[in-house]
Amino acid sequence: MPYDPLACAVICIVLYAIAVISVILRFYVRFYLLNNTSTDDYLAAGAAIVYTGFSLSYILGVLVYGVGRYSSEVSPGDYENGLKTVFIGELLYFSTNLLVKLSFIFTLSRIVTRHTRTV
């Protein structure tokens, strides 16, 4: 099956849209319905912001610089820029992953401490 960079970019955009919609719904519930925010909400928002950069670097690398293709199909300048976008994307991926996990930890901590006090 041939490599399709447009399909990869579309999948990345769809996953990004799902992530942003999830964070927007989370903030709607926590800010407007419950009037209660916590550290985990801000960590989730930070993760969404960093994930924006990761998605942009992935789309740029795939569509513009030929990331994912054979090196013989890519010019040397695009090859170098593609490696830079991959490196930046990896840094942003790890940062996003860290923020998501911290948000999850703070969410669990908030839930567990609330329920252990009432028991």
UniProtKB/TrEMBL annotation:
Keyword vocabulary terms for this entry: Membrane, Transmembrane, Transmembrane helix
Membrane topology of this protein: Multi-pass membrane protein
Transmembrane parts of this sequence: 6-29, 41-67, 87-108
Localization (cell): Membrane
Rhodopsin domain location: 25-117
Alphabetized Pfam families for the sequence: Fung_rhodopsin (PF20684)
Family as reported in the entry's similarity comment: Belongs to the SAT4 family.
The name this protein goes by in its record: Rhodopsin domain-containing protein
Organism: Aspergillus keveii
